[in-house]
Amino acid sequence: MSLEAIRFDRNARSLNILDQLLLPYATEYIPINTIADAHNVIKKMQVRGAPAIAIVGILSILVELDHYVDGKFKDQSFYDLGDFANFQNQLIQRLEYLVTSRPTAVNLSNAVNEVIELIKSTKAKSIDELYPEIFKYGCDLIDDDYTNNVKLGDHGKDWIIKHLENEGFNGKFSVLTICNTGSLATSGYGTALGVVRSLWNHAKSFTTSNEESNQEPATKKSKPSGAHFSKVYTLETRPYNQGARLTAYELVYEQIPSTLITDSMVTYLISSLAKNPDSPPIKACVVGADRIVKNGDTANKIGTYQLALICKQFGIKFLVAAPKTTIDLKTPHGDQIIVEQRPSNELQNVSGGVIDIQTNEVVKDSKGHAISGKVGVAAPGIEVWNPSFDVTPHDLIDGIVTEDGVITKKDGEFDLEALFV
Ligand code: MRU
Questions:
Q1: How many structural domains compose the chain?
Q2: Is there a catalytic annotation at residue 19?
Q3: Are residues 368 and 318 in the same domain?
Q4: Ligand 1: which atom is nearest the Cα of residue 388?
Q5: Which segments carry the region annotation Disordered (predicted)?
Q6: Of 20, 299, 336, 419, which residue is least crowded by CB atoms under 10 Å?
């Protein structure tokens, strides 16, 4: 079973999210009962990743309204339960507040805008009648996200393999990725990490075919050749270390061949592998996205832009993998994206499991729970600049991988509108 960032019980209508600040040393789920709870866990980054944020945000509406349906709502002060029109306006206000939790990822605001449209245009005359409509929207959001991730993972895999084979490359290759874009950032499977997962599944079957070809001559099948995945190098992703904490955790859990590097090692890694004929070279870089605007400029985790520049220098294909829910056609150019600034202490301090210096193991309390702690790593008083994302210009992006396929540029420009006709 893949890792579960979001636990939504459709019968009990309960929502719990995995506290990603405690990973990889402790696995604890936090109950979400209200829209305010969702705002809080999104802002604190206990749940993170553009699709996961949207799903938790939308499901929080359901659990909040479910308290009304259950009659547990009587002490609340934010809804006028006696007047449905007032209730609709108040719910819309709460959704507008939810979107302020994190500004850069567009999936949440895209989904919230659709729910607001649903609330405005509904024929429902009561909360009881409106509830099933929002319930269906939330369930479809999770289900579609999963299905679309699998599709885009396979499209990205096919594109990379085909591209390499057209170039005449037939051996093992490695890929790069940054941040976390796997099951923990989505409803499951993942976006960029979904492409990696599909590449790994392809490589596993390739290995099996090769093994079969070692049979006795009478039964020997023709030996397949072709480009296939060897391993993924995952960047640590400073300052919040989503690569080291989350991607690495997921890759180990899924047993996908992988190596962790710091963000500053990429250039040396690529050039070292290129000089060593025994090491599968880096042939592609796949990243996720928080917002892809109309011209293809892409906001993603800080460090993505410099990764794209390095790939350009080495002629490595650079792909952005995201569902269509991450596309923002209303914003024409990347300069118009609001990039979230995070608190300075996220850069000045490193947090994680406390490690015993003798054993190198995480220290546990008397109940066996991992103890977490914070270590200061910056000079007190230093000014800090801590943007959570950067914006990669579309000219550095070779392809945008969605559930509909891989879009490439014609005459240097992406036509993302074509995805929505
Ligand atoms: O700040 P985070 O951890 O929410 O940032 C996440 C990323 O930048 C991801 O790469 C992006 O959201 C894609 S998630 C499938």
A1: 2
A2: no
A3: yes
A4: 1
A5: 207-226
A6: 336
Residues 287 and 179 in one domain: yes
Question: Which atom belonging to ligand 1 lies closest to the Cα atom of 178?
Answer: 10
Query: What digits encode the pLDDT tens for the residues 325-355?
Result: 999 999 999 999 999 999 999 999 998 889 9
Instruction: Answer yes or no: do 180 and 105 share one domain.
Output: no
Mutate to test the pocket of ligand 1, among 6, 148, 290 (most ligand atoms within 8 A of CB): 290
How far is it, in rounded angstroms, from Cα 94 to Cα 60?
Answer: 11
- The last residue of one of the domains, among 107, 124, 144, is 144
Ligand 1 mean position, distance from CA 178 (Å): 9
Which range (7-11, 121-125, 210-214) has the least confidence?
Answer: 210-214
Q: Which atom of ligand 1 is nearest to the CA of 179?
A: 10
> Which of helix, strand or coil describes residue 361?
coil
Residue with tokens 């009648």: 129
Indicate the pTM of the whole model.
0.92
Determine the distance separating the centroid of ligand 1 and the alpha carbon of 123, expressed in angstroms: 36
Q: Give the whole-angstrom CA distance, residue 414 versus residue 289.
A: 16
**Domain final residue pick, 144, 162, 187:** 144
Q: Would residue 203 count as lying in a domain? A: yes
Question: What Cα–Cα distance (Å) separates residue 364 from each residue in 248, 354, 369, 372?
Answer: 21, 8, 5, 9
pLDDT of residue 218: 46
CB-based contacts of 248, cutoff 8 Å, min separation 6:
24, 234, 258, 260
C-alpha 309 – ligand 1 centre gap (Å): 19
In a domain, 1, yes or no: no
Average pLDDT over residues 183-200: 96
At 244-271, the pLDDT tens digits run 999 999 999 999 999 999 999 999 999 9
Per the model's pLDDT, the better-predicted residue between 77 and 208 turns out to be: 77
Same domain? For 405 and 327 the reply is yes
Domain hosting residue 271, numbered range: 149-420
Q: Burial, 89: exposed, middle or buried (Cβ in 10 Å; 0-12, 13-18, 19+)?
A: middle
Examine residue 323 and say whether the peptide bond preceding it is cis (omega within 30 degrees of 0): no
